[in-house]
Each structure stands twice: as structure tokens, then as C-alpha cells.
Amino acid sequence: MISTRGSSFFFFGAATENAKKMNANKLVTGNNSRISRTDNTTDKTSFNNSIIFKHKFKKERRTLSINTDFNLLSTSATSFLYSINNFGKVLRIDTVDQKKKSDNTNRKFLGKVAYTEPLSAKYSLELNYEFV
Fold first, then answer.
1. Domain range holding 51?
2. Which among 50, 61, 114, 127 has the fewest CB atoms less than 10 Å away?
3. 112-8-117 Cα angle (round to 5)
């Protein structure tokens, strides 16, 4: 027999982060030189939520708990590298022009069910099941 002595909790969180970074430098060593520039752009979005449901039955200390968690992290990045390398002794110039793009998404779901059954005034049995 189930009574209405249950309680539920809900948690929700979300965040977004955008970052842009640019770096330029010049390096001269003897007859060699390098001029380079990097541009990095990153977008991150995260989403978290938790749900907890607890129920107390009419029989003392008999309970049922259900917990769930869901997490999502999405990252998108674009990087550029432009570099001119001058090797003075061998009269050679090398140019690097690169673009790197990455998109990553991570999801995690966790669930747990716990049931407590009183065995006597002093002892109780708890059964748990957890899945990821």
C-alpha cells in the first residue's frame, strides 16, 4: 500500500562560455627568424540536471528513492596558425597556414534506485541498483 508521503527535488543548471584568443610574436635567432600569429575561438555549453524522488511507505523505515543525473558538455573550437619561417643561412623561407576545427559532445546519464526494508527494530536491508 502506498501513502502520499513522497518528496521530489529537481535541480537544473546551464552555462555558456565563449572565448577568443589571438597571439602574435616574432623570434630572431642568428640568421633565422619566425613571425607567427595564432587565433583561437572556443564555444562551450554545459547542461546539468538532477531529479530525486523519495517515498516513505506506511510501514516505518520502508523507503524507495530514485535519483537521476544528466550532464551534457558541448565544445566547438577553431584555431588558425600562420607562420613565416626564414632560414637565413640556407636562403629558404617556409610558410605555415593551418586551420584546425574540433567539435566534441559528451553526455552522461546516471540512475540509481534504492529500496529499504526494515528487518527488525535494530536492522534493515537496503537494495541498490545503479546504472550509467
1. 5-131
2. 127
3. 55
Express each pLDDT in 26-78 by its tens digit: 988 888 899 999 999 999 999 999 999 999 999 999 999 999 999 999 999 99
pTM of the entire predicted model = 0.64
- d(Cα 54, Cα 76) in Å, to the nearest integer? 38
Specify the amino acid at residue 48.
N
Cell triple for 104: 566534441
Residue 119: phi and psi, rounded to 5, are: -95, -35
Q: Residue 63: CB partners within 8 Å, gap ≥ 6?
A: 54, 55, 56, 57, 114, 115, 116
Asked if 22 and 77 count as a contact pair (C-beta separation under 8 A), the reply is no
Looking at residue 120, the DSSP 8-state letter turns out to be: S
